[in-house]
Amino acid sequence: xxxxxxxxxxxxxxxxxxxxxxxxxxxxxxxxxxxxxxxxxxxxxxxxxxxxxxxxxxxxxxxxxxxxxxxxxxxxxxxxxxxxxxxxxxxxxxxxxxxxxxxxxxxxxxxxxxxxxxxxxxxx
Length: 124
What we know:
Distance between the termini: 15 Å
Shape: elongated
Largest sheet: 11 strands, antiparallel
Strand content: over 45%
């Protein structure tokens, strides 16, 4: 899966696991560029964990959270994702849009924005 954040040139690669019970995990690199609005340097991240729910029209709603830390391990906050994914008719590809809110370590929102994702199924 490829995640593109509006305003950031880097495309983030992730492996998305959509579990049959509605669980979602996006395995992504442990170090990523900071989101455009923050001006920070690269940050260390956890995998994104969340959930997905089937919609009526061959798609699903997704949401998840990813924790952020500085190089010294100090917590920097979290990024909350919410979006909609459409599954292509062949069941192989998917694409969608998402919004995100990044919170500071104290829980205040420090950045918000939008992005897109595209992907190809590894297995069904």
